[in-house]
């Protein structure tokens, strides 16, 4: 077995040697190489089979699997097909029981190699040793599997003895053979690439040398190769023409000999730096000395060429004759300097910029005005020098210049610090290098504007003086054409000055009057002295008549030339009328007195009638507003009493809240109307000030809690102990207005109500009350109209905070009626202090009780104590009938309804009632007359009769009292107030034994 292995190894070594020879020999002929390699690998496979290891007749083993897999992966499909064909044919000829398996192993080994080659080529990266090792393992596993197919299980003996050889030695052998062939082939490829690269480099060098010599010899620019010692080694014809020497003459000289002495030092310095390796090349302008002695201006470019070891070899120089360019530059420089001198000498700013606004040129004055440097100006554009108010006008003017050819504008140019200077800019479109540019000049107009401002100011003063004069003033030229007129004249004529100028009197008045004017104008000019006369004028624009005293003065210019007539017309209509009236007084004084007396009587009657009409209107307005409000509040309260739905109760509560707000607005409007009509009188009852404040806290305390504000009361001890005489209801109304406003306009902090004693006398006191808040505050400008009716400090507050603006106006009137003053101290954003003073009397009697604001359960007491009590309700309005009846029956009372006063009287005659509720305004018989009639009935002399009416004025209360009513309830009636009032009078009737009508 080992001998057979050694033979196979020998064949493989021979295969490697022969294969490398074939690959090298047929490197450039791929197909021939594959054919030869196929024959070579096939022959080695056949040799292996000719010296096999036999395990049984017809079952042999050799190294053909290695050879055939290697030929497939290394040499390709053609070589693999040839080698596999030879091996398969030979194995078939050998015959035996393993022939079929042997042929299969031959074909599959070659196939495995070809497939592996395709896989490795598609990877795109060079194959690794592991890939070849895996190929060997796969091929040997295939071979072991194939031996299981040998008949009579004779292949198993081979597997038992040779499996370890196949798996231990054959895969590495496969890997080594593949690596050897791959490395050999790669070496050949590397050698080929190296040869090609060397050939390319040589070709490039030869072409470069050829191009260099072609360029060197035929260049129109002088070129030279010089030694490191500055000698000319080689020169071209262009350099010879530039310097005037032949090639032979130049190559015997050094370039330093021909350099102008002033340029030699700088040239040598650069040359030494280049040789020292500090720079690889340099360029400079340099002057050479021509053979005939004149100087030649050149542009010199020098480069150092080094040897392969990096040491300096020689120097290449390019010498360009720039004499003509230098001459042109010198001429241009002189021209530019002249142009700059002219531009800088201009009295204004000069500028040139392109269509994009980029500055191309400017003068020194431009720099002086703006304060910018040349570098900064080069980066700026035209709009950068102007403020926001001028930029658009500048842009529009620039567009006009580029469109129309020229334009001008006045604007203020800003320097780098923002300081402005007014200029008049004029621009013209010019063409430079085929592009449109803007050439402009700006002149400083500061002094002109100052003079214009002074002149305009003086003219404005003069014009103001003329326009504010009460007399007519006009100016006409010598032909009677108007040159000017003042405001009074414009109003007089009914035309503006612009409409009057250029016209004559004939276009405004009749011919006769115009002739009269013209005549007196001529007289003034002919006499060269003022002319005074009276003129009666009628103007068509409104038809009114005025009597004028006119003065006409001839006017001359500074040279004494007559320019026209100045006219001054003074209205003497009133003076004449007064004179005539005085004359009439003298002549008819008695008639005048009688006439005036009659006029005063008529005026008095008219005033009294107007007052009565206003009073009637207010009473009707109060009644018409309160009647539906009573229905709204009553119906809402009824629904609220009979529902347990939280959402409905919340919504109904908002309806009641809104209705009370509307009622407050109505009350305020009626209050201010009554005050203005002088129909509101203050009460004089005894009270304590602390009780008034307690009622304010009761009404507004919950609002403060909702906004998380502190509501504090500070009353001086000497005030708390006083029993005062005055109108507590109106005083509370003032405090509610001021404290309610403080709550409205305060979101954080506190509201403090303070009361102090300013004056104390035996008859009365002067109190000062301050309402201090930490709210939004009020500006000084807003404070001026705070206390005017229907106004707020800021109209926008009505939209944000609500309100009619009446509260402060009413409070001011009440305070003044109480002999005091009211004011405000405030700063916007820092809160406000509203203060007022009132004069109140002192009372020695009992204190009148302020109506309790904390409601007791009057309805429960009525239901428990007076259920079944019979009362009469007189009400004509259906909704109010329903509301009142439901409320009364809801507390157990028995209600009879009368729809007018006459029906109420009839019911009272036939029934007995414990109490009567009486409306005032009803059809057929009103409540007042009905009350008087009922009081005349013997059994109703003391029965409580309560007015429940929309007539809420104080005089209405007095009328009810005079008619015999016991109390007055103003609509809309609060249910709790109604119940308390009923309880009061039913309790009174019961206590006095006058409570009939109960069951």
Polypeptide structure, described:
The chain starts with a helix and ends in a 7-residue tail after the last helix. The protein has six domains: 2-192, Arp2/3 complex 21 kDa subunit ARPC3, CATH 1.10.1760; 219-321, Beta-Lactamase (2-Layer Sandwich), CATH 3.30.450; 348-444, PAS domain (Beta-Lactamase, 2-Layer Sandwich), CATH 3.30.450.20; 450-571, PAS domain (Beta-Lactamase, 2-Layer Sandwich); 681-842, Histidine kinase-like ATPase, C-terminal domain (Heat Shock Protein 90, 2-Layer Sandwich); 858-992, Response regulator (Rossmann fold). α1 (2-25) packs antiparallel against α2 (30-50), α28 crosses α33 and α30 runs parallel beside α31 (927-935). A hairpin with a 5-residue loop joins β3 and β4 (232-235). Strands 18, 19, 20, 21, 22, 23 and 24 form a seven-stranded mixed β-sheet that branches. Strands 4-3-7-6-5 form a five-stranded antiparallel β-sheet, sandwiched between helices. A five-stranded antiparallel β-sheet has the order 9-8-12-11-10. It has 33 helices and 29 strands. It is of the alpha+beta class and 999 residues long.
């Amino acid at each position: 077995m080992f001998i057979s292995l050694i033979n196979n190894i020998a064949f493989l070594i021979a295969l490697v040697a022969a294969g490398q020879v074939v690959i090298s020999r047929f490197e450039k002929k791929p197909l021939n190489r594959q054919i030869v390699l196929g024959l070579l690998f096939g022959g080695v496979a056949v040799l292996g089979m000719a010296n096999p290891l036999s395990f049984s007749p017809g079952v042999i083993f050799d190294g053909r699997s290695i050879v055939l897999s290697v030929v497939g992966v290394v040499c390709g499909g053609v070589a693999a097909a040839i080698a596999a064909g030879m091996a398969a044919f030979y194995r078939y000829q050998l015959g035996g029981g393993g022939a079929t398996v042997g042929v299969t192993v031959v074909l599959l080994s070659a196939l495995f190699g070809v497939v592996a080659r395709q896989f490795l080529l598609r990877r795109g990266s060079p194959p690794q040793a592991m890939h070849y090792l895996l190929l060997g393992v796969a091929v040997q596993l295939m071979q072991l599997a194939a031996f299981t197919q040998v008949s009579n299980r004779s292949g198993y003996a081979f597997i038992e003895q040779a499996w370890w050889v196949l798996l231990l030695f054959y895969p590495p052998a496969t890997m080594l053979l593949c690596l050897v062939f791959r490395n050999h082939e790669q070496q050949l490829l590397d050698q080929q690439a190296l040869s090609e690269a060397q050939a390319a480099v040589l070709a490039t060098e030869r072409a470069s040398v050829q191009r260099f010599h072609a360029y060197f010899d035929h260049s129109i620019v002088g070129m030279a190769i010089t030694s490191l010692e500055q000698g000319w080694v080689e020169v071209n014809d262009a350099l010879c023409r530039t310097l005037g020497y032949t090639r032979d003459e130049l190559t015997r000289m050094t370039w330093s000999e021909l350099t102008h002495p002033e340029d030699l030092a700088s040239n040598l310095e650069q040359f030494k730096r280049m040789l020292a390796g500090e720079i690889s090349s340099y360029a400079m302008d340099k002057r050479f000395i021509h053979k005939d002695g004149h100087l030649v201006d050149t542009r010199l470019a020098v480069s150092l060429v080094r040897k392969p070891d990096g040491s300096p070899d020689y120097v290449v120089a390019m010498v360009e004759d720039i004499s003509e360019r230098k001459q042109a530059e010198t001429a241009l420089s002189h021209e530019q300097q002249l142009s700059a001198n002219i531009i800088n000498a201009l009295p204004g700013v000069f500028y040139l910029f392109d269509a994009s606004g980029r500055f191309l040129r400017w003068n020194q004055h431009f720099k002086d005005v703006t304060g910018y440097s040349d570098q900064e100006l080069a980066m700026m554009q035209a709009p950068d020098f102007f403020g926001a108010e001028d930029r658009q006008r500048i842009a529009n003017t620039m567009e006009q210049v580029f469109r129309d050819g020229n334009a001008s504008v006045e604007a203020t140019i800003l320097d780098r610090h923002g300081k402005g200077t007014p200029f008049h800019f004029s621009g013209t479109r010019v063409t430079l290098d085929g592009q449109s540019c803007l050439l402009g000049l700006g002149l400083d107009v500061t002094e002109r504007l100052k003079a214009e401002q002074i002149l305009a100011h003086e003219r404005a003063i003069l014009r103001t003086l003329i326009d504010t004069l009460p007399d007519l003033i006009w100016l006409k030229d010598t032909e009677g054409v108007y040159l000017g007129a003042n405001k009074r004249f414009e109003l007089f004529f009914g035309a503006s000055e612009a409409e009057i100028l250029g016209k004559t009197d004939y276009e405004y008045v009749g011919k006769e009057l115009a002739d009269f004017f013209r005549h007196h104008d001529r007289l003034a000019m002919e006499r060269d002295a003022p002319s005074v006369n009276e003129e009666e004028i009628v103007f068509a624009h409104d038809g009114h008549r005025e009597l004028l005293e006119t003065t006409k003065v001839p006017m001359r210019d500074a040279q004494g030339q007559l320019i026209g007539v100045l006219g001054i017309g003074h209205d003497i209509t009133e003076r004449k009328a007064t004179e005539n009236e005085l004359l009439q007084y003298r002549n008819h004084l008695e008639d005048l007195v009688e006439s005036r007396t009659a006029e005063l009587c008529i005026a008095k009657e008219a005033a009294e009638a107007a007052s009565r009409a206003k009073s009637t209107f207010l009473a009707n307005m109060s009644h018409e507003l309160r009647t539906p409000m009573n229905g709204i509040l009553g119906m809402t309260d009824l629904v609220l009493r009979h529902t347990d739905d939280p959402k409905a109760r919340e919504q109904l509560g908002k309806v009641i809240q809104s209705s009370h707000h509307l009622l407050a607005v109505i009350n305020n409007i009626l209050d201010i109307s009554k005050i203005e009509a002088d129909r509101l009188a203050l009460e004089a009852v005894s009270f304590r000030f602390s009780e008034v404040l307690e009622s304010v806290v009761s009404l507004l305390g919950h609002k403060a809690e909702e906004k998380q504000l502190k509501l504090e009361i500070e009353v001086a001890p000497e005030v708390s102990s006083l029993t005062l005489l005055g109108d507590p209801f109106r005083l509370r109304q003032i405090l509610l207005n001021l404290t309610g406003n403080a709550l409205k306009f305060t979101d954080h902090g506190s509201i403090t109500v303070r009361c102090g004693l300013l004056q104390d006398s035996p008859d009365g006191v002067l109190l000062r009350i301050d309402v201090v808040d930490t709210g939004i505050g009020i500006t000084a400008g807003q404070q001026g109209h705070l206390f005017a009716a229907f106004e707020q400090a800021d109209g926008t507050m009505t939209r944000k905070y609500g309100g009619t603006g009446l509260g402060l106006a009413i409070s001011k009137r009440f305070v003044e009626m109480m002999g005091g003053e009211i004011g405000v101290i405030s700063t916007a954003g820092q809160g406000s202090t509203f203060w007022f003073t009132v004069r109140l009397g002192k009372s020695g009697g009992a204190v009148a009780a302020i109506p309790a604001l904390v409601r007791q359960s009057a309805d429960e007491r009525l239901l428990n104590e007076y259920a079944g009590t019979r009362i009469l309700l007189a009400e004509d309005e259906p909704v109010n009938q329903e509301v009142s009846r439901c409320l009364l029956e809801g507390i157990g009372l028995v209600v009879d309804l009368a729809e007018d006063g006459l029906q109420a009287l009839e019911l009272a005659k036939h029934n007995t009632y414990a109490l009567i509720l009486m409306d005032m305004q009803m059809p057929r018989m009103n409540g007042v007359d009905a009350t008087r009639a009922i009081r005349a009935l013997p059994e109703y002399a003391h029965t409580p009769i309560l007015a429940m009416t929309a007539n809420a004025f104080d005089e209405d209360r007095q009328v009810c009292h005079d008619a015999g009513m016991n109390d007055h309830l103003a609509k809309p009636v609060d249910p709790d107030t109604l119940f308390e009032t009923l309880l009061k009078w039913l309790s009174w009737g019961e206590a006095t034994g006058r409570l009939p009508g109960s069951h």
